[in-house]
Amino acid sequence: MSAAGSSFLNHLKLDPATASALQSFARRRRWLIGLRCIAIAVLAFFSTLFVVAIADHLWLLPDSLRMVLSLSAYVITAAVLWFFGLRHLRHEDPRELARQLESTAPRVRDDLLSAVELADPRFANGSLELQNRLQNSVGRRLQKVDVTGLLPLTMIRKWLIAGSVVLAICLLLALIPSLQFGRRIARAMLPMASIERASDIKVRIIEPTPATRHVAEGDAVAVVVEVLWPRSKADSPPVTNARQTAEEEVIIQWMVEGETFESMMLSRAPLLSPQPGDSPPSPDATSLTDTTASVFAANLSIKKTPVQYRVLAGDAVTLWHTLTPLPRPRVVSFEKRYQFPKYSKLPDVTETSDHGDLTALTGTTGHLTIKFDQPVRDATLRYGTRGVALDLKPQDDDPTAFTVSLPIKTAGNYQVDAIGVKSELANPFSPQYTIVPIPDTPPVVRWGEGIRSNMLASPLDVLALSASIEDDIPVDDVFLEFQINASIPEQSPLVIDSADTKLSPAWNWDLMHRNDSQTPSDTLVSSDIIRMRVVAVDRKGQRGESRTIEVLIVDEGFTQSRQDHLNRLSEVVSETVDWTSDAYSLIDQYKEQLSGDDPSELITSKLQDLQNDASRLSDAKELLIQRVMTVLPLSNDPVEAAGLEQIGLAVIDLQSKIEDLVTTIQDAPANPDDDETRIRRDLIKRLPSRLANTRNEVSRVEEFARSFLAHHMDIGILTDAAALLQSVRPIADPEANVPIELFERYVNVAIARMKTIDTLITTYSDLIPESHRNHLRKWNDFSSTWQIRHRNTIDDPPGRDNLRSLMQQYTAELTWHVASNLIDQQLEGRLKNLLTELNSQRRKPHDILRQANHDGRDAKALQKRLDAIDDANQAAATTRQLNEKTAAYDDGISDLLSRLEQDETLHRARPIVDLSYAADTNLFVRAIKNVSVDGYQDYREESIEDVYEKLAKAFSVIFAAHQVTTLQTELATLQLAENRLEQYAEARLDHPMWIERFMFEMEKAVQSLRAAGIESAVTDPIDQTRYGGAIQQAAELIRSRRWEEKSLVSASASLRTATAKLDAAVQPLTPLVDEARRVILSYVPTLAEQARQAAKKAEEAEQRTKQREDASSETAKQLDQQQQEAEQAATETMQSLADRANNVELTDAAERELARDADAAAAQIADALKRAQQQMDAATSTSAEQTRNEMLEDAAQSLQELKDALGKTAEHFERADAGEDVAESRAELRDAERELQQAAELQQRFDQAEAIANAANKSPEELMRQLEQELQRNELMQGELSEIAANAAETAAASLDQAAKAEREINKSLERSDPNVQEQKQRMRQELKGVAEKIDTVRDALLYQAERAANLGRQEKLKNEVAELRDELQKAAQAARDSGNGDALMSEMTQSAKDASEAIQAANKAMQQIEQRADAAAAESVTPREKDRQALEQQASHLQRESRNRRSQDAENQRKEWDNFERAADSRVSQAQREAASAERQKNDHQKKLKQNPNDSWRKQEIQRAEERIKLAEATEAAARESKQFAKDKKNAAEKIRKESQSEKTESLDKANPAAQLAQQMAAKANAELGQIEKTLGELANQPATPESLRAATQAAEHAIESQATITKQTENAAAFLERAARHEERLGKDSVAEKLNQAAESVTQNAVASSEQAQQAVQAARDDQTKSPEANQKVAQATKQIQAEADQLSNMIAEALPQDPSSTTSQPPLTSNTPTATSQSPASQSPASQSPASQSPAANTPEGRARQLAQTLDELDQAIANPAGQASSEGQNQQSGEEQTAEGQASEQGKPGASAQAASGNKAGQEQGQTAGQASPTLAAAMQQQAQKMAKQRQSQVNSAQQGNPAESQSQSMAQSSTSTLSNASSEGIADSESIDAKQENRKGSQWGQLRERRTDDAQETETHLGAPEYQQQIEAYFQAVARRAAQKQ
After folding, report:
1. Which of 235, 1051, 1355, 1458 is the right S-S partner for 1037, CB 3.0 to 4.6 Å?
2. Which UniProt keywords apply (predicted)?
3. Using omega within 30 degrees of 0 as the cis cutoff, is the peptide bond preceding 210 cis?
């Protein structure tokens, strides 16, 4: 310690004694300071603690405040300690010690400090000796000093005493227990310690026990405390209710995450005795005898955070206790292994889930592995709430996992509980888990979505069915159970992929093979009902069934897919409507921008939005065009295809116009100066009108599309309605003898079919015009009304007679709807007008080119002007104009090319393509691209302006010729359709539109030809074909079908003549088209040149690929882009090859070889091109550089092969065009075919073409001989020819019947043309009407009263006689009234008057007898009393007055009728006067102008016509005046009668029987009235049938001559039809029938034809001499009788001589089933219900189909041979425009529009020698055309396949062409062979979804069938190949 204590003296050189003294002094000083510090600390610490304890006792301090006070005590103690002691300990300075020591020791005063200072080397001075002596002196003196005495203990005595006293007091207080001083001081001293507050009130925590413990998460923990109150505060018994005093309130405080809460505790009954486990009372607790206990409780909500709590009761506060939450044991997962019953054959299923619900089949055992979230013990499983408990088996390796097995038999629940190992908590609140045993119920079977409860189907249908099956266990036995009518149910198994609990089988159920066998089932017939359901049987043997649905079998035409084509059309129309809606929106937005104050600024700000909208509209247009191109190949006929094409072309044109509108402002100057601002404003000023025009054009497109769909929807509706009518006729026919039990079937079919029609209307109602929707409401009303009535009939069946009467009424109304009401007569006119407007609004390509040429010419002139301008302002203005014109030129050329390419693509998608026009369009595009490549610059040495004009003119010729060719094709197609008239609805609706379209479209086509500069010598004959006699005759026959209820009469004969006339007229057009084509060809490379250019580009691409720098990805992509130019050139060469092959003459063997060369070359190019594309694509897509390098090498090799193929192609066709030998190169092409494995396909393709060509090239006689030989051995052909003969005879009868009606119309027109006769007829008509009213007056005013009087007089017999007479008079009145209605002939009215007169005469005789019998009865009394007689007299008098009043009223009505007639006559007088005045003015005007030009012949004719009008008007006026006077006289007479009736007195009734007397009086008056009526009728009957005064007008006579000529021709055709039928019957060996037909033909010639010719001569004479008009009228009337007699006689002869089996007779149209028709429907068609052509005709590849084609070809050849003169005049009738050979040179490269492209025709040699079989037979011509079309589609498909790899090409073309190609391939099946095709090998359930299966009823048991083509497949006849082969063998 010395060393330690002297450390502060070490640096001093003190004397040791001095140093020791100083150290001792320092130690003593520190010891005394320490003792003082202890005393002070005790004093200060316990004093402050006492203060804190007092505060803690007096107040309930918060812990924080108490801690602050305690801390303050510690701080005060430390401060006092520091101030009074500790701070002095820090003084260790020797000088300070020396100074303190000197102050207490006088001996060393003043020396000790000096010694210390001198001892410090830092401050020492003076001599060393002096220092040493001083040190020694001080040391000696200090040795004698007592340090203890210097610092005695008394110095700190008072501090020690104070501290001791305080400590003693504390100890004494601590010894008093009641003060709890120790606890109080301890709480003040240790505020952080858990020391309860000292209080007299004792709080004991009863619950929870222990107070600090683990509790369950989420529980509410009850805290229960017992409070012991001192007796001094409990003078009364303890308070245990809510009225506790404030001093006795108990509060619980708790703290969660540092946040403190408190709440009052509620008192409850005190504990009677201590609970086990309660803590004992504290030692210092007050005796229990001095306290009273109260119990308080509160709940604490424990979540996941520990909760600290304490209880405050008065001044008592418990310690803080902690409740630490722990989760209760909880099951976290259940592993369930289900062991299913054995019968289910199900493997065990294991699943893991977080719940323990067990759901399984009844009888399943569930094996559970239960996992807890913590280690647990004593795990149990208890059933229900108090059920059996099962111990869970623990798993050895996992204290949290337990297992148990439960049987799943009955429903229940269970709970799992366990005790946590750590928390010792159980979980009585664990969830209850359910045990749900699922009974193994039968399978649930439902039909698929869309399967209705009632369906209609054809016996030939393949129903698309689907179902859904659900069961608890997999189902593996599913079948279709069906029952036909009341037969035994049958089963058809359904194939399922695998057993499953959920199955969705979908299958096609063939109604012909219902049991899923190859052998056909029994044929279903109309009105059969199939009830069917899907049945599933589970593994337990339980059976589940779907609801039963009913399939009503209707006729064979009612197939499920019959409306598929309409659905496709609706998709096109729907997208068109959407596109037009978007177009409206865009145009309206544009117009809105123009409506502002400053349109230019507004448009500039919104231009981008408009451009975006236009871009979206363009995208929609592309989708629409793709849709059109998808549907277009599936068109049923050329007219429908033309309509779809028209929609596409119109949309393309409008899109271009809309984009041009949007870019108008965009192209305006961006920063306009004054002039430019004016230009911009001018542009904007013109925009509103352009927008309005464009909007109107858009509306036309929309309206056309809607009307187009409405027309085709009408066809579907009429087809179904006609079939419905045909199906209900048996139950409406009294002679049908349909059993009453079957009536319900028929009615159900009727209801279902009406619903089908309603659904059809509803489906498309939003897409058709509103006017058409309104029109169809009539059908909706009819349908809804009769559906209700039919259901009522089923629910409450009437009697047989009532039911048949009801069905007769239904049939009558349905007949009216089918006849006229369903057909919208205005729709055809709307379509015609819209089509005309669409054609006029669409800009033609040549017009666009001319406009672009004009803009380019202006730009070129402006450029020259700009070069010569020096002024800057003028130069700027000129530059602006130059830019505008240049932009206009560029836009025009770009727009033209885009349009042409789209038009060409669209046209190639048609089912029948004008291949020459498609090729010419491609040429035109290539020519424009070629000459415009450098802009508007001269082409070679020729002015570009002249070049464009030549191209425009040339294409205008081609375009106009294409229009004619299209119409030529449509007319030929119409002729084929009219040959058999198999489609009732199409014949009534489509054919009239075809013929109308031909007539008005031909007018437009001729106008186009004339506009193209074609001379009138060429155009006039073409123009005449639209209004010539033949086409007019056909038009009259066809157009009348829309509104007339009559049988369909074929117009094929007239159309055949019209077609021949058109073919002949088109011939002179061919050289002009060839010349136009040569003009275009002069501006494009030849095929050889094109191939060489493509080869050069391929070589360049090859070199670039070989000489590439590297094989990087970037290089590959660059090479790919560069290779596309070569690919494009190769593709264009392929297109040229295809066009050349398409346009060769297939009847020429050399031309066919060239076509095959082109196909082979194209295939070789396509193969190399495809490989080059694939390899380049692979190179650009691979990531491996080595692989990329190899692919590039392969691509270079493929490009070399492509170059070689193109080069060889160029050489081959160059030699071919030069006429050199091509045998070597052709052999190379054939080798290439074999290498590409296409030789067989090409050989077959051209063999088929050769077979048909050989047949077409034969003479008609030669081919007919071969066909006649075939006829002898072909029974099916014999049947078909017999049917053709029967149809011809029936057509003849129908034609004669129609001719008779036409003759009657001539009579009417002649009579109408004479005003005198017309007025005479009107007077007679009015008189007949008056006579009918007089008869009614006799019936109702006289005889009715007589009948009532007879009844009163009890004369029953008399009453009956009067009633019978009234009925007879009613018939006579109705006959007179009917003859006066309408436009009856004079002869008919006189005959009606005569018949009525005879009836009245008979009635007069009967009346006299009635009068006599009544007179006799009047004398006999019927009442014994006079009073009764008087009463009877009064009643009779009343009847007498009623009769008088009625006669007076009828007379007044007649007076009014004649007054009206008088006014009408007066009106006609005025009208005639106005007409005369108008004609006089016209005459004067023409005379004045004639004086100026006396040689004007037209004026002279007009003057003559005006004079005739004046004469006619004067005659009309005179006749009308006569009628007026006549009416006036009749009116006066009626007035006289009225007055007489009013003044008539009542006669006395005084006889015994007054009533009988009245009857006698009424009979007498009636007799008198009938006498007057008879007299009037006699006068009318005596008028001549043909008035001698008849003077037919010249115009009417001329029209009659034309009509009479038509009738003569019609009767001649009827005779020709009979002769043709006779020849066919003779070929069939039916000589007797042939003889009868020949006799009938001779009779028609001698009577009908002769009388028609005589009538024609008489009418001609009447035209020249009006006085012969009566004779002409009589001749026409005689002809009518003669023709009608022949028609009736022929009909009877047909019924006797040509009896037909019901299964094979021609079905009649539904309107006039008893009238002979020209309908030639197939035996399958018993109604005109079938819409699809395939549904009527047998497939071409069936024996029946081939037999029909052969018979039809024989029939056509027979007609051609029998009428050589007519055929000679129509040479080339089956050719289309441009069928002749083209000129040599470049024209031959693209081919000519020969028969291969459009129709079959003979070659030149054939034309020179005479007509060929191909020209004579439309069927054979159509076969040639179809073969050419098929080959063209195949070629185009190859071209499109090549284009798909070229990004520059549009994919829409290839999509549409792919559809077309598929269709064409399907439509040409079975060309090559004549063998039958087995139906077992046919996929009839979906391989060709667009085709309808074709079967006939009599074929239903056959096993051979084939899918028919959608259009001309039936005309492609494999027998022609066989015939040609036989002919070759004979040679």
Report:
1. 1051
2. Membrane, Transmembrane, Transmembrane helix
3. yes
Q: What are phi and psi of 478, to 5 degrees?
A: -130, 135
Question: Quick one: pLDDT at residue 767?
Answer: 93
Place of tokens 């079938």: 1730
Q: How many CB atoms lie within 10 A of CB 678?
A: 11
**Residue 802 burial class via C-beta count within 10 angstroms: exposed 0-12, middle 13-18, buried 19 and up:** exposed
The answer, yes or no, to whether residue 1160 has pLDDT greater than 80, is yes
Three-state SS sequence of 976-1031: HHHHHCCCHHHHHHHHHHHHHHHHHHHHHHHHHHHHCCCCHHHHHHHHHCCCCHHH
CA atoms within 13 A on the CB side of 813: 12
Q: Which of 461, 523, 513 is nearest to 1899 (CA)?
A: 523
Q: How far apart are CA 1527 and CA 1514, in angstroms?
A: 20
Taken in order 1209, 1215, 1219, 1221, is the CA torsion positive or negative? negative
DSSP 8-state symbol, 942: B
- Is the distance from CB of 505 to CB of 469 less than 8 angstroms? yes
Res 1857: pLDDT: 44
Mean pLDDT, the chain, integer = 79
Greater confidence, 513 or 1099?
A: 1099
Find out whether 1762 and 1049 touch, Cβ atoms under 8 Å: no
Report H helices in 1493-1553.
Answer: 1497-1543
Question: What is 1546-1614 written as a DSSP string?
Answer: PPP--SS-HHHHHHHHHHHHHHHHHHHHHHHHHHHHTS-SS-TT----HHHHHHHHHHHHHHHHHHHHH
CA 186 to chain centre: 93
The sheet with strand 291-301 has its strands ordered as: 202-207, 220-230, 291-301, 266-268
Residue 402 has pLDDT above 90, yes or no: yes
pTM (predicted TM-score): 0.67
The mean pLDDT of 1337-1342, rounded to a whole number, is 86
Cα–Cα nearest to 823, from 980, 573, 1039: 1039
Cβ within 8 Å of residue 141, ≥6 positions away: 107, 108, 111
Element (H, E) at 534: strand 529-537
DSSP-assigned states of every residue in 1688-1712:
HHHHHHHHHHS---TTTSPPPPSS-
Q: Tell me the CA distances in angstroms from 67 to 58, 90, 188, 255, 483, one per residue in order.
A: 16, 31, 8, 17, 99
**In 6-145, alpha helices (H):** 16-58, 63-84, 94-104, 111-119, 128-143
The residue among 124, 119, 146, 152 whose CA lies nearest residue 6 is 119
The residue count of the chain comes to 1931
Are 1618 and 1289 in contact, with CB atoms under 8 Å apart? yes
Q: In Å, what is the CA distance from 1560 to each residue of 1349, 1368, 1400, 1567?
A: 9, 19, 19, 10
CA 466 to each of CA 473, 506, 546, 1892: distance values in angstroms, whole numbers, following the listed order: 21, 4, 11, 21
In this predicted structure, what is the pLDDT of residue 277? Answer: 44
C-beta atoms surrounding 454 within 10 Å: 13
CA distances 1657 to 108, 1299, 1385, 1653, Å, are 188, 17, 21, 6
pLDDT (0 to 100) of residue 196: 74
Residue 254 CA to residue 544 CA, distance in Å, equals: 66
Q: In angstroms, rounded to a whole number, what is the distance separating the alpha carbons of residues 1486 and 1476?
A: 15
Give the model's confidence band at 1870: pLDDT under 50 very low, under 70 low, under 90 confident, else very high: very low
> Could you report the per-residue pLDDT of 227-263, keeping only the tens digit for each?
888 865 444 444 443 334 445 688 898 888 888 888 8
Q: Quick one: which H or E segment has residue 250?
A: strand 250-256
Q: What is the DSSP letter of 445?
A: E
CA pair distance 557, 1538, nearest whole angstrom: 64
* Residue 940, number of CB atoms within 10 A of its CB: 8
Residue partners of 1174: CB distance under 8 A and separation at least 6: 1845
Distance, CA of 1770 to CA of 1060 (rounded, Å): 4
